[in-house]
Amino acid sequence: MHSHLFIRSATAMGLILFAVGCSTLSQPPQDTPPTPITIIVGPVFLEAPITKTSQVRSLDETPSPEQEQVLLPQLIEDIEVNAQRLLTEALSNQKGFTVIPFEEARRLHADLVAPHTLLTDAQIRELGRRSGAGIVITGLIHDYGAVRWQYWVTGWLTHVTIATSIVGAATGWNPAAIGIYLAVDATTDFPLWWGGGSVFGWTFRPVRLHADATQLTNCEGLIWTKEELAIKVPGKALAEYPEELRDKKEIQLEANLKRATGDIADAAGAKLALQTCDEDDKPEQISTFSILSILDLLY
Fold first, then answer.
1. In sequence order, which ranges of the chain are alpha helices (DSSP H)?
2. How far is 136 from 125, CA to CA, in rounded Å?
3. CA 134 to CA 125: how far, in whole Å?
4. Do 224 and 112 lie in a common domain?
5. Closest CA to 290 of 176, 142, 185
6. 123 or 16, which is more confident?
7. Which of 78, 157, 194, 240 is buried most, with the most CB atoms less than 10 Å from its CB?
8. Any bridge partners for residue 286, and if so which?
9. What is the pLDDT of residues 38-48, one digit of tens each?
10. Contact between 263 and 228 (Cβ < 8 Å)
11. Are 181 and 164 within 8 A, CB to CB?
12. Would residue 24 count as lying in a domain?
């Protein structure tokens, strides 16, 4: 009697375990999350034509030529380091990336080249090798505090041609009306296109930042570029600073630099990924389009 109960119980337990095992085996495999890409942000080089400290910093007194020789190189280096730090922090907030810490990137960079020096292709590869990164991002600051003449002349002439045509058609091409419009337009638009001014409480401190991403995993080469131009200083960004500092050039420029690095990081988070290699052992390039890059052909 007891032996029959034992056999029946063991049989039932075996059937249950078999059913559970089958149901487990029949479940679809779980998707494995992709491995994060290791990225290092290399140096950001300031190539904007800055010749005086007062162009990018509010000063109580004009420095002497001797002081300028000391202040300007240090100021340029500070801007470059800050841009590298901001871009590193912005990329660290993107999913799918493991970003080498800023302090480590600075140490590796210092071992390769002196400050305010562009990296060669070989040095970019070495920076990636030493850090273990699959992608190295480097940057160029084309404009800082003022838009180069090719940009503001092109932009302003395009704008004024369209607007003048509208005003002329509406007024029967009245010379006086067109003249008044052009005077008002020049007063309000030059700060927008040239930068470095305030109109109706809006402040314009142009910052144009270009970023290149070079892949080193599997095959080596440039895979992605992105360029951002920030002109109007966002009020929300200035609100992060003490009120007594918000009207200073360096703070307004930093706010737009932070905006540009954030926009580039967002674009990288959406598109940047390791690419397959072609028959020449070069990575495929991620397609991008920028009107700013086209205007670069002007100079």
1. 2-26, 65-92, 102-112, 121-131, 149-171, 175-194, 235-238, 249-271, 291-295
2. 8
3. 10
4. yes
5. 142
6. 123
7. 194
8. none
9. 999 999 999 98
10. yes
11. yes
12. no
The DSSP bridge pattern shows strands 135-144 and 37-46 to be parallel
Long-range contacts (CB closer than 8 Å, 24 or more residues apart) made by 196-204:
196/145, 196/146, 196/249, 202/232, 202/233, 203/232, 203/233, 203/252, 204/231, 204/232, 204/233
Q: How do residues 81-123 score in pLDDT, each as one tens digit?
A: 999 999 999 999 999 999 999 999 999 999 999 989 999 999 9
Q: Write b or e for each residue in 163-180: b if 16 or more Cβ atoms lie within 10 A of its Cβ, otherwise e.
A: eeeebeeeeeeeeeeeee
How remote is the C-alpha of 70 from its chain's centroid?
Answer: 29
159 and 225 inside one domain: no
Same domain, 258 and 180: no
Concatenated DSSP letters of 227-258: EEEEEEPPHHHHTTS-GGGTTSHHHHHHHHHH
Phi-psi region of 79 (alpha: psi -120 to 50; beta: other; left: phi over 0): alpha
Q: How far is residue 270's CA from residue 96's CA, in Å, rounded to a whole number?
A: 10
Beta strands 202-215 and 197-199: pairing type? Answer: antiparallel
**Looking at the chain, how many residues does it have?**
299
Are both 242 and 125 inside the same structural domain? yes
Phi-psi region of 102 (alpha: psi -120 to 50; beta: other; left: phi over 0): alpha
The pair phi, psi for residue 145, each rounded to 5°, is 100, -20
* Six-digit token string for 202: 């809006």
**Domain assignment of residue 171, given as a range:** 149-194
